[in-house]
Amino acid sequence: MQRRQFVQTLGAGSAVAGLGLLGGCAAGGASGAKVIVVGGGYGGATAAKYVRLFSDYGINVTLIEPNPAFVSCPISNLVIQGSKTIADITTPYDNLEKRHGVKVVRDMVASIDAEKRMVKLAGGGELPYDRLILSPGIDFMWDTLPGMAKPGAQDKVLHAWKAGAQTVALRKQLEAMPDGGVYALSIPLAPYRCPPGPYERACMVANYFKKAKPKSKVVIFDANDDIQSKKGLFMKAWKDHYDGMIEYRPKHKVVDVDAATNTLKFEFNDDFKAGVANVVPSMRAGAIAVTAGLATANNRWCEVDFLTFESKARKNIHVLGDSIQIAPGMPKSGHMANQHGKTCAAAVVALLEGKEPLSLPIYANTCYSFVTDEDVVHVASVHRYDAEKKTMLTVPGSGGVSVAASELEGRYAHAWARNIWADTLA
Question: Which has the least CB within 10 A, 31, 178, 371, 405?
Answer without folding.
Answer: 178
